[in-house]
Hints:
heterodimer; A: alpha/beta; five-stranded mixed barrel; five-stranded parallel β-sheet; 9 helices; 21% strand; B: mainly alpha
Amino acid sequence: MAADRRIFSLLEVTKSIQKTLQERYTSSFWVKAEMNKLNHYVHSGHCYPELLDKQNNKVIAEMKAVLWRDDYQRINQRFISILKEPLKDGIKVLLQARIQFDPVHGLQLWITDIDPEYTLGDLEREKAETIAQLKTEGIYDRNRELPMPLLPQRLAIISVESSKGYADFRKIIQGNAWGYHFFQMLFPSILQGDQAVTLIIQQLRTIRKVRKHFDAVLIIRGGGGEVGLSCYNNYRLAREIAMFPLPVYTGIGHATNETVAEMVAAFNAITPTKLAEYLLQRFHDFAIPVRDAQELLSDISLKLLDTANQEFRSHLRLFRSLVEGLVKSRENEIAASTTVLGQQAKHFLRLQKEELRHLEKNIHLLDPVHTLKRGYSITRVNGKAVQKLADVNIGDHLVTQVFDGLIGSSINQKKES
Amino acid sequence: MSKNMNYAEAFEELQAIVTEIEQGEITVDELAEKVKRAAVLIKVCKAKLTATEEDVNKILKELDGAD
Lengths: 417, 67
């Protein structure tokens, strides 16, 4: 046992360390680190973050920190307004801190400020990396290149029963004035914050098993504000959506930049309401040509029948007018013939009459009486006029006719002259 | 005509008939046949707009079996 040895109490040691550190670290400084755990205590409002430094995914430095309630609230507000994300586990931070050493609590960083811009840059980087990775793998456009279902009618919906966005969506879909029918099945999930990544992926994998019953998957969120959406930039979730065998439609409801999940989805609507309207529009796109076809068929049928009818009627008119013309012209011909015939007949009769008169006159002149009057006579034997010697024989009885009577005689001689 | 005719096929065939008619090379006699066919197709399409045969319970049962 050495008599000269000096014994310190533990407090003296810690006080000495405390004093040395206080003299060495007189002011605050900026530190970049990964905030592995925020460790926010709701009751006290203080946080006891667990800070890490990593190299190749290996922890190479670790330190505890403290973030007092008022500082936490101020910083968290700035994060929400700038990043649209609260302070949370697993983000990279640039923080302003002082070294503190407490005899009881040991060494820790007392955080007085955190620069949201640094974390924002980191989130942007994560988003860019997710996009780049999906493109490298050649799957960035895969969901968008799936054939569009003609009618997105059977919907697998990833949402929360109580979500306002989901209620808005249902109101439009269910009350649609055209009677369009949708089959909807809800696959409940948290839709923002870190847990959303795992839960949405789980539900997508469930839906994948029964995908033949669905035309599309809808991710619907709304009424949740703008905070906690960086989960939609997560590589694993974006990849699951890009690779999903059915078209994924997103209606996440926010005004800031599109997330990667929305970019790779087959269709992205700004809000659940717009998504519902899009689906109805797709139904219209189907229903309208069907209705037009119906009208066209009815119109064209009527028109064709009408044309045929008109053609028939015009043929009929033409036929009638031809027939009437023909009849008329025949009638005219007959009338003309009748006139000619009348005239011809009259003329002919007159001629006949004249000829008769002429004949009558001739006949009168030829009457033998006139000849007899002039001294001629007719001699007959047995009633036949005697013209030559051979007609008579000696002894024949002759009857001679003269103008005013008959003379009987007998032949006693014949002599040629 | 199958009762379970795919509505997408019905839609496509209907569009084809419409195109044919619009191009105007169809006689009154052909038209009667086309109109009859189109009426069936229109019925299939319209029915699809207002009904599905999916059933949540059936899908849940299928999921139970898959796990």
